[in-house]
Each structure stands twice: as structure tokens, then as C-alpha cells.
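[job 4417] fold queue: 2 targets
>>> target A
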Amino acid sequence: MARIKNPKLIIALTGSIGSGKTLIAQVFKHLGVPVYLSDVEAKKLYENKEMISQIEDLFGSGVITNGQIDKKKLADLVFNDSFLLKKLNNCVHPLVKQDFEKWALQQSFPYVIMESAIIYETGWERLFDKIICVSTPMDLVLQRVQMRDNQTKEQIMKRIANQMSADEKIKRSGYVINNDNIQLVIPQIREIHSQLLNAAANC
């Protein structure tokens, strides 16, 4: 899959669920960087009538409540079945990619970021000039997701099992931010930000 056609640098920000990607994305936004939050934008797409119809055709009326996609029912269904998860991804991901490309072209900053937990799982890594991976110890991941989503350890581990291992993501990424409650995160972000601005200036 070829890189997105765009004169700016196209950067991905990824990591496992609970790694702290959203917080780090907010820091980049504070530095003036346009950031596309994939989950947020995908949820907006779920409100599209065409998407609702596609989801109902694929998964049945049980995931539709009051004419809208019931995201919790859909999530409970697909995260327990890798085949169904793949079907959902094949439906949603092309629309997210298309929406991101349109959004990126509207930005004027030297580089833009797509934040997504599943950059590698979707085979999208070649779309980007650089990938930033957030690395977080598993005990912190479990703690954060349990507090945020009120899920059991077993439920969280099922979700993580559907993603590439953190070690493999780190190995494949151009930059790594250690979000381990020990190393300061903001200096790491500022250093990457500076390097990306320099790279963009030399394009």
C-alpha cells in the first residue's frame, strides 16, 4: 500500500490500548500539530446511514438500537471473534483512511499525525513517513484500561490478543515514547517534534 499523497510529512502514533496514546496526542496538539484521532472519527462515521445499513447487514439487527449502531453490543460481539472483527475492520477502515486523507490535505502544518492503535494490524504502515510507538509496561496498561473501561483483566487481554505485540510494534517503529511513569514524557515528545520539523523542512 503506497504512502498517502500529501506534501506534508504523514506520521502515525500507535501503541497498545491503555498505553497513553490519547494523552500524548494531546501534547502534540498543544505544540500545534494537527492530530487525527481515529477512534473518535470512526465513531462519527458510525452515525452515517450507509454505515448503519452495512453494519446491520453484516452483524444483524441485534447490534442496532433505536436505529443507531449499539457500539457496546458490537464491541462485545467482535472482540470475542477474530473473524467478525476482521469483517468489521474491512467495513470501517477504508472509510477512516479516506476521511484521514481528506482531512490531512486541509492542514497547513509541516506534519500531521494519525493516532490509532492498529496501524500495523491494518497493514497501513506504508502510508506513513514515520511511526511513533508508545511503550507502556503491561501492568500499567491493565490498570489504566480497568479504570477507564471497567473491564476485567480477561476482557482486556482478549482485546490485546487481537493486536500485534508491543515488542514487535516497537521494533518496527521509527520513534518510541516510553510512558512508564518513570521517564518524563514531554521531553521525549519535544525531541521527536523537533526532529520531525527538521525532516519536514528538508523535504
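>>> target B
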Amino acid sequence: MNKTLCLFNRIYTFCYTSFSQTTEDSVRQTVNNLFTGMKTSNGVMIAAAFADSAVLQTLSRDKTSGKITVRNESVNEFVKSISTLAVNAADERIRFNTVKIDADLASVWTPYQFYFNGKFSHCGVNSFQLVRLNGQWKIQYLIDTRRKDNCAN
């Protein structure tokens, strides 16, 4: 529900409209905050998107054997590496395909294209699991795929 509050006096009129944010909007905002933090090299913003016990993983394909492996990455190392980049160096462009929510658990699927220093690097899909802790959505689990071909523009 949107609410508008207006204050009047003889000289000024001030109106403030508050928009109710849906649960899905809140989940999307947490994910968007991660990518805004990456693009702006803001380590505090990136770290704030994650739960304290979050897990980051990437599916990788060995170039020689073709074998798929799961690579783990520490949230702290991820934050450290991205926050040292120049602003706009890490530009991950996502679109929300699916957002599913049940109580304090959310699942989000976001195809993406990643640009590094303005040049296309790779694409894939992010799969997020978020939990609502103390009223705030946090990323608990993130796994992604990465490839350089079959990337829709």
C-alpha cells in the first residue's frame, strides 16, 4: 500500500510518498545490491549482501579433460578482489528469470553477461538461495556457470 503524507505551512508544501516494497522486491534488491557493489567496487556493499556463513561456488570445465568441477570461493576473498578493482571494471548484467519465495527462503535464477573493463568476458547463470535473517534478505548460497559461447545479447 502506498501512503502519502503532506505537510503544509504558509510558505512550503512538502509531500512524501512511501511505497510498500513487496517481499519479491526485497529479494531482488538484495541481489541488485550485490551487483551494484561489484560495479562500484564497494566492498562494504558486497559483503552486506551475504549471510555470515554464505557459500560461493562456480562450475568450471577443465580445458584439457573437459571434466566439470565445482570451485569454492571465500566470500571474504571475493569481496577483497572486487573491491580493489577500478569503479565500473566488474559489470555483471543480470536479468531475473525466476524468483520463488517460501516464508524466509528465496530462490533466484539470473542469467547474466559479465563485462570486464568494458569488454565482454563471459556469460552464464547465477543460482541464489537467500534467507531472511532479522528481517533482512541475505545471500546464503550462490553458484554460477560460466561460458564464452551461446550468450544471448
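[job 4417] complete. Note on B: The chain has one domain: 22-144.
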